[in-house]
């Protein structure tokens, strides 16, 4: 450099002021640009110490074994490690792109991401969820803020990115729970219950970070009194326990409203830490144990009848403290002799029927507590009203069910729930190989494992057949059409339709067949639903639909009445109710007081190549496709 106006140290200091970001890479680009400017700036920009904060903020997630290998390979040079993680990000995005348009390879691609990349690419997948999306999917109060560039296929990319995040998280949770079966393998109460949130696509690292922040705040709160304490002095431990419970109350964590006691989200740590702080004894004890352990106290749950308690050890003593975290307005440390009989009576166990020596008052391992939590989730389902079900997003219902089923299967080998996990319409489709087959099946009994593996292999084999292209002979309606059910008056949206084909139309090639209208459901379903009693019988088109009432349905054409006009708010309502909207559709052609439709994803356009044109004609002219030899149908 001809004119070294500033010494190297000044350049380094200036570059050290670049703000790290988990969302944007502007600061990193500045470092890269400086490294290409001249020798002096290059020497400054290449210093590993400048890259460390950017690395740690951007890549808050990692696979620990891979991270250790990277540190060894690059001698903890954070610039080189950052470059390696960028390469992994690009690989993950390429696999995600292939996943969006190659349904026959999805399970193979999901395996590659889940097993080979996993938490190393969590952040880049998570960033896809922050992309701008078309206005039609946004709440009305956010529409004006949405006038930004929307990347092509943003909603579909968001759907598959979130699906992949969920697969990574659930694979980790299932493998963590599997360690509960192995003698000598330690799984903490925190880890066990945190795994439930994985079924909502929540990373355990996110929850641990939130707990770390709360733990630090709690430490500050305790320092206002006697802290640190001598854990061998019972009175000091009791005082610390009481103040931890006070801290929790001050931060809004308290007993839930009895009328909302069965709220489904009370069981899941990511909700308890944010939106559902008025919660259950199990969740309160989970948080208490997590905070106490971060503060150096040996706290554990107690599998007490009807209400979970906590146990805190006193060093050098066989008798620890029994803590009722839920008793926020009373003393929280219980006396085994004076308080336990009354506590049992309060939960419906009469004093004369209880034997204090037979009641669990010692620390419980994580396994029984996880099983209790899973069964509590089932209990919430039984107590929910129909109105509460209707208000819940279908995805939330399915995620909670999935969590409870997997935990119960791993801990009890109860095979009755297997059928729910091998349904090809289960929304977590990417889980079939990396979660169900590779991670869950090895944890089950031989019989259950064989059943699960057999069905998973069938689904994998079916998915490897190249997608059939259906031409719409005899099919009147199209994917993306909103309708009202003629008989039951519910609102639905068509996401697919099926047709019969001859046995020679299933080679591993892309097919294009003329649809022969017929019901493709099982004979048992046809009889049970009275299909042959319909005026059109079984030999009419049947459509796969989603509804605002919950689960997907299979509807005869004669029961579908197109919505004209089509209210724009339906797009938002369906998007909130069904995560799968992003798999089927990318945008909407819809406005007030006219006909509207959803615009198909690339996958649906490939599978139903004539439906996009059919939808456009419906919106523009109100014309539906030729049906049963008639030139066309027009709705006025």
TrEMBL record:
Coiled coil: none annotated. One of its GO terms (molecular function) is DNA binding. It comes from the Eukaryota. It holds the Pfam family YccV-like. Residues 474-582 form the Hemimethylated DNA-binding domain. This is Hemimethylated DNA-binding domain-containing protein. InterPro entries: F-box-like_dom_sf (IPR036047), Hemimethylated_DNA-bd_dom (IPR011722), Hemimethylated_DNA-bd_sf (IPR036623), SirB1_N (IPR032698).
């Amino acid at each position: 450099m001809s004119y070294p106006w500033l010494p190297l140290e000044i350049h380094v200091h200036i570059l050290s002021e670049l703000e790290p970001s988990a969302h944007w890479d502007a600061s990193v680009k500045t470092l890269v640009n400086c490294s290409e400017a001249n020798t002096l700036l290059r020497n400054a920009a290449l210093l590993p110490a400048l890259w460390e904060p950017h690395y740690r903020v951007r890549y808050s997630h990692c696979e620990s074994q891979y991270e250790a290998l990277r540190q060894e390979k690059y001698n903890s040079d954070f610039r080189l490690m950052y470059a390696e993680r960028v390469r992994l990000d690009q690989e993950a995005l390429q696999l995600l792109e292939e996943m969006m348009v190659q349904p026959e390879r999805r399970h193979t691609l999901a395996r590659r991401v889940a097993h080979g990349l996993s938490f190393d690419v969590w952040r880049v997948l998570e960033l896809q969820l922050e992309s701008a999306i078309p206005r039609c999917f946004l709440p009305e109060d956010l529409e004006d803020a949405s006038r930004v560039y929307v990347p092509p296929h943003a909603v579909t990319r968001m759907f598959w990115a979130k699906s992949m995040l969920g697969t990574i998280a659930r694979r980790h949770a299932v493998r963590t729970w599997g360690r509960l079966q192995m003698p000598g393998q330690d799984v903490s109460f925190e880890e066990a219950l945190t795994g439930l949130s994985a079924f909502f696509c929540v990373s355990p690292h996110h929850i641990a970070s939130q707990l770390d922040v709360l733990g630090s705040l709690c430490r500050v709160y305790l320092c206002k009194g006697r802290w640190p304490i001598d854990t061998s002095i019972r009175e000091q431990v009791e005082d610390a326990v009481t103040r931890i419970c006070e801290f929790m109350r001050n931060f809004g964590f308290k007993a839930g409203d009895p009328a909302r006691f069965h709220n489904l989200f009370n069981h899941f740590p990511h909700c308890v830490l944010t939106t559902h702080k008025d919660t259950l004894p199990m969740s309160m004890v989970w948080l208490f144990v997590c905070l106490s352990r971060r503060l150096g106290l040996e706290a554990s749950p107690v599998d007490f009848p009807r209400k979970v308690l906590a146990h805190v050890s006193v060093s050098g003593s066989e008798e620890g403290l029994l803590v009722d975290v839920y008793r926020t307005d009373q003393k929280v440390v219980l006396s085994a002799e004076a308080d336990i009989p009354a506590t049992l009576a309060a939960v419906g166990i009469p004093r004369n029927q209880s034997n204090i020596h037979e009641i669990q008052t010692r620390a419980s391992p994580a396994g029984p507590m996880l099983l209790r939590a899973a069964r509590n989730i089932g209990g919430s389902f039984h107590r929910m009203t129909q109105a509460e079900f209707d208000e819940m997003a279908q995805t939330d219902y399915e995620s909670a069910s999935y969590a409870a089923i997997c935990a119960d299967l791993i801990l009890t080998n109860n095979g009755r729930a297997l059928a729910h996990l091998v349904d090809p319409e289960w929304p977590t489709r990417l889980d079939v190989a990396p979660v169900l087959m590779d991670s869950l099946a090895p944890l089950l009994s031989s019989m259950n494992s064989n059943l699960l593996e057999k069905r998973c292999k069938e689904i994998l084999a079916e998915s490897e057949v190249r997608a059939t292209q259906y031409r719409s002979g005899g099919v009147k309606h199209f994917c993306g059409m909103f309708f009202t059910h003629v008989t039951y008056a519910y609102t639905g949206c068509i996401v697919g339709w099926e047709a019969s084909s001859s046995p020679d139309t299933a080679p591993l090639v892309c097919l294009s067949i003329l649809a022969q209208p017929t019901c493709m459901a099982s004979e048992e379903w046809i009889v049970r639903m009275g299909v042959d009693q319909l005026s059109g019988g079984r030999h009419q088109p049947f459509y796969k639909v989603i509804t605002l009432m919950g689960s997907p349905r299979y509807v005869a054409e004669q029961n579908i009445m197109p919505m004209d006009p089509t209210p724009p708010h339906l797009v938002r309502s369906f998007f909130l109710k069904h995560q799968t909207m992003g798999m089927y559709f990318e945008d909407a052609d819809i406005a007030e007081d006219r006909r509207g439709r959803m615009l198909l994803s690339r996958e649906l356009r490939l599978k139903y190549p004539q439906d996009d044109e059919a939808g456009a004609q419906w919106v523009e002219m109100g014309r539906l496709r030729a049906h049963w030899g008639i030139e066309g149908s027009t709705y006025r």
